[in-house]
Amino acid sequence: MRARLTKEFRFEAAHTLPSLPEDHKCRKMHGHSFKVTVTVEGEVDESIGWIYDHKRISDAMNPLLDLLDHGYLNDIEGLESPTIEKMCAWFWRKIEAQLPGLYEICIYETPTASCSFRGEF
What we know:
It contains 2 helices and 5 strands; from the N terminus they run ββαβαββ. The protein is α+β, with helices and mostly antiparallel strands. It has a single domain, classed as 2-Layer Sandwich (Tetrahydropterin Synthase, Chain A). Strands 3-1-2-4-5 form a 5-stranded mixed beta sheet. The mean pLDDT is 97.
């Protein structure tokens, strides 16, 4: 049996989007309450009943969330222009080796604006 397992995380951070035109409001410093979902896909181990322990996902994500939470994203290497599209790819590169079967990362910068990424560079 194949299944997908999703775990949700949250962090608060500020950023600017310096590549936008001078008059765009998102070029100014502003912040978001980000939500990140990480989904893995794989075969369910019938002996225990899951793909793998949710803790593996948390163990991969927590050091990154500690780095980002209540920070200025533009100061983080690889996030100098931190759109949610670039943030998805950044997270993917950081955790893919630790999470076999990584299927999707989705980042919400507001309750109605999000980006999904499935590792296609």
